[in-house]
Specification:
about 40% helix, DNA-binding, seven-stranded parallel β-sheet, alpha/beta, about 800 residues, 29 helices, six-stranded parallel β-sheet, globular
Length: about 800
DNA sequence: CCGTGCAAAAAACTT
DNA sequence: TTTTGCACGG
């Protein structure tokens, strides 16, 4: 996020040099054209790895260095905050630091910024809360219960996805209500929930994710003079990942690049006291120039309302648009591109586009079929170790999964094998209950109208304010017509016991203190105060439940992250902090953590990254493992029913393949644990779309030659036969049936301290016993504090790297 | 009002 | 397999 002062009225710079030749250096002809072209609308169709970020940053740098635009006249939209930060950095580097005032941000960050400034126009207060998916869910859940509508079988998930779709299509409550089928009781039930949800958000002074975009569009449409501020200011709008924009985002862009009518322009300039902007002959301010970059083959967010037509029909939308195709790939080997091209060619309704490279065919793609998720994970771990032995850094290796559930076996095996890894996304830090509790306090301090936040913490830590009391408070709030927060100010009004009154008064005082602090103290101090004064932190610390200990530590971690934020943005207010957290994306944690390891002194060796295919978009790695390439997983079973679902899954697979620079591994398992029991899996149809000679199948049973023709899959009948894992694995029998003697806990959670050998010290020559591998001799010890790794030669012949602290081993 | 214990439900992807 | 919701006794 950016917290720079906005410059709304800079006259356009005069001097126009050409584009600095240095900015064009090393670009191919198409890329050069994309940097240099000037006109109303430009579509850059950028295939994977075609250097689009480079083109985009140089295009911006060109606008600045030729003095065609001030930084403040540029708005660049990226998909993640991380991409925004990266782009800013690269532009600053190119132009030598003169990028202040430029807006480079995500759709959501940009819109929140606009809405906070113009909140009153929309009937909001500037301190509005942003509800994340979990908040919305909790709210809808309560509404369904309160409205006695559960008989229709409404589920929070179903209701929310429908509301989200409506909002992404800019169908607000009123227009939906107008068109609702009033003979359909279930439809009316849904309408009632939608209505209550909308009202609850409004009363709580809150917006959900979809509102952030939609309300901005409504703002611009309802208040042309407000829109004009931004239309007049931004002369160059650039949008990355255009194929993933939904209708609301599309509408927003259209509003932003719309010309300003003469009378509106006059009015705004008079009101603000600005000098007239450059006008067209008819007195209007011409619309901004628009550059969009995207690749319809990488559109993977249809489930979130992304409309591929936005990019496909760009030329109809903007008849004067110029289109540039970037097909030369600078990332992957030809073999990887061949596989990618072959797969995506099966999507029939796409414009022909073929990626090519001049950098050689490279290594074969490696395939592997495991017996289970664990076996597959073992293969991945073994291959990672041999890549490392061949000199590849862990940080250059990524493992992709379709669903977060797949990460478990990977983590378990990686921990056991001592493969350092980092999980991106998954159960996120900011989703943990205690962290959300802490944020509920802060939210309430910033936005007293937020009943949901108050309900969350009114009895956390335990204050003796139970359901009955909350109901009484709520009843009074409803009667008087004030937020719940207001009722806390007069507990004596309710005839409660003295203990309860005291508890309520204490909470009331605490929240007021927080609000007072927030006015002139940094966010982390407010955070520390509410955590301490509420006793929340102390209660967790004092608990004898080991999980509470971890929770207390998470709160400590939260405080230090808040301090970190303070260092990065010294001027930031509490609301800025809450906004930044609310809009933090999974992909954003990538670089933060990477910096942390990368900067570590003394040759710290980076980590393998595990993430979903969705999160992987836009990234690249030397070696990529795509796991779970199975029917019903990739393509996911939920996609089979939706029209276009398979095509989207195929694009997802395509995105995964094209992340790889040098090595690509495709793996699957013939059975996979889900929900507790085991289900059988078939190889993905996508595998048969890759020419057989591109893949080298590993493992004993693959000698028959893979299933490039679609056949060759092992029948279910021989699944029970005990087999050896193929690659450098031990003979533990891990893959065919579990060893009942093995204690289960040792497979368990990487985060919690389930297995902990404390400060067990091993030296070369020590004998140890491992639960899976049996006895062995320590051959080497790599000291690294708590991450000390021992290399052990097991008597069975296998040689393993083990993380001493957590490996299921004992010293003999 | 709080803690315990059992039954039931739940997991695609994400701003 | 893990998390959540509800009934019960204190």
């Amino acid at each position: 996020m950016t917290l720079l002062t906005d410059v709304f009225d800079d006259p356009a710079p005069r001097a126009r040099g050409g584009i600095d030749p240095a900015l064009l250096e090393g670009l191919n002809e198409r890329q050069r054209e994309a940097v240099e072209y000037r006109g109303r609308a430009l579509l850059i169709v950028a295939g994977a790895g075609s250097g689009k970020t480079s083109v985009l940053t140089r295009r911006i740098a060109g606008l600045l260095s030729s003095r065609e635009a001030w930084p403040s006249q540029i708005l660049a939209i990226t998909f993640t905050n991380k991409a925004a930060a990266e782009m800013r950095e690269r532009v600053e580097h190119l132009v030598g630091g003169a990028a202040d005032g430029m807006w480079i941000s995500t759709f959501h960050s940009a819109c929140v910024r606009i809405l906070r400034r113009q909140a009153e126009a929309m009937g909001l207060k500037a301190g509005f809360t942003i509800y994340d998916a979990a908040d919305s869910r909790a709210l809808v859940k309560r509404i369904i219960r309160d409205a006695d509508l559960d008989s229709f079988g409404f589920t929070p998930g179903g209701v929310l996805s429908r509301i989200s779709k409506l909002k992404n299509e800019l169908t607000d409550l009123e227009s939906f209500a107008r068109n609702v089928d009033s003979t359909d009781a279930r439809e009316l039930g849904f309408l009632e929930i939608y209505r209550r949800y909308t009202e609850a958000l409004r009363r709580a002074n809150a917006l959900d994710f979809d509102d952030i975009i939609g309300e901005t569009v409504y703002l611009f449409r309802a208040f042309p003079e407000v829109a004009a501020l931004y239309q007049r200011r931004f002369r160059h709008v650039l949008v990355d990942e255009y194929q993933d924009t939904n209708h609301a985002q599309y509408a927003l862009i259209r509003e932003l690049v719309r010309p300003v009518d003469a009378d509106v322009a006059d009015a705004v300039e008079a009101k603000q006291g600005w000098a007239p902007a450059l006008r067209a002959p008819d007195g209007s301010i011409p619309g901004a120039s628009l550059t969009v970059v995207g690749d319809s083959d990488q559109s993977i967010y249809a489930f979130r309302g992304a409309d591929i037509r936005n990019i496909v029909e760009f030329e109809q939308d903007f008849p004067e648009a110029h289109v540039i195709l970037l097909e030369q790939n600078y990332r992957s080997t030809q073999r990887i591109l061949d596989a990618a091209n072959a797969v995506i060619a099966n999507n029939f309704d796409r414009k022909a586009k073929r990626l090519f490279t001049t950098s050689g065919s490279g290594e074969p793609i490696v395939g592997y079929t495991g017996y289970s998720g664990h076996d597959e994970a073992q293969f991945v771990a073994d291959e990672i170790e041999s890549l490392r032995d061949a000199g590849m850094d862990y940080s250059q290796i990524a493992v992709f999964v379709r669903t977060n559930a797949q990460t478990r076996p990977l983590e378990e095996v990686f921990i056991r094998e001592g493969v350092p890894y980092r999980l991106v996304g998954g159960t996120r830090f900011y989703e943990r209950a205690e962290v959300k509790d802490a944020f509920a306090y802060l939210t309430l301090v910033a936005n007293p109208d937020d009943d949901l936040a108050l309900r969350r913490i009114i009895n956390v830590p335990k204050r003796g304010i139970g359901d009955a009391t909350v109901a009484a408070l709520q009843a009074r709030a409803d009667r008087v017509g004030v937020p719940l927060r207001e009722v806390l100010r007069e507990p004596e009004e309710l005839g409660l016991g003295p203990k309860l009154q005291a508890a309520i008064r204490e909470l009331d005082v605490l929240l007021d203190e927080g609000t007072r602090m927030a006015a002139d103290r940094p966010p982390h101090e407010v955070l520390m105060h509410v955590l301490t004064a509420s006793g929340y932190h102390a209660v967790l610390k004092a608990s004898r439940d080991p999980q509470d200990e971890a929770r207390a530590e998470n709160l400590d971690e939260l405080v230090s992250q808040a301090k970190e934020f303070r260092n990065q943005y010294p001027e930031a207010t509490l609301i800025d902090y809450l906004t930044s957290v609310a809009l933090f994306a999974a992909a954003d944690e990538l670089d933060a953590a990477e910096d942390a390891t990368g900067n570590a002194a003394g040759g710290a060796r980076g980590k393998v990254t595990i993430m979903t295919l969705h999160t992987a978009k836009g990234l690249e790695y030397d070696a990529v493992f795509i796991t779970g390439v199975e029917e019903e997983l990739l393509p996911h079973r939920m996609s089979l029913l939706e029209p276009g679902g398979i095509a989207e899954e195929r694009r997802l697979f395509y995105v995964g393949i094209t992340r790889a620079r040098k090595r690509l591994y495709l793996s699957l398992a013939t059975s996979r644990a889900s929900f507790g029991d085991v289900s059988v899996a078939m190889p993905s149809r996508f595998l048969s779309e890759i020419p057989g000679d591109l893949i080298e199948w590993r493992g004993d049973r693959r000698s028959q030659g893979g299933w490039s023709g679609g056949g060759g899959f092992r029948s279910l009948g021989d699944r029970g036969a005990p087999r050896r894992p193929a690659i450098g694995a031990s003979a533990s029998g891990r893959t065919s049936g579990r060893d009942p003697a093995k204690p289960k806990t040792e497979w368990r959670t990487p985060i919690g301290a389930v297995r902990d050998n404390g400060d067990l010290k091993l030296a070369v020559g020590d004998r140890i016993r491992h639960t899976d591998f049996g006895e062995g001799r320590v051959a080497n010890v790599i000291e690294n504090g708590p991450r000390t790794v021992a290399e052990v030669e097991f008597d069975g012949g296998a040689r393993k790297r083990l993380l001493v602290k957590v490996a299921p081993i004992e010293k003999l």
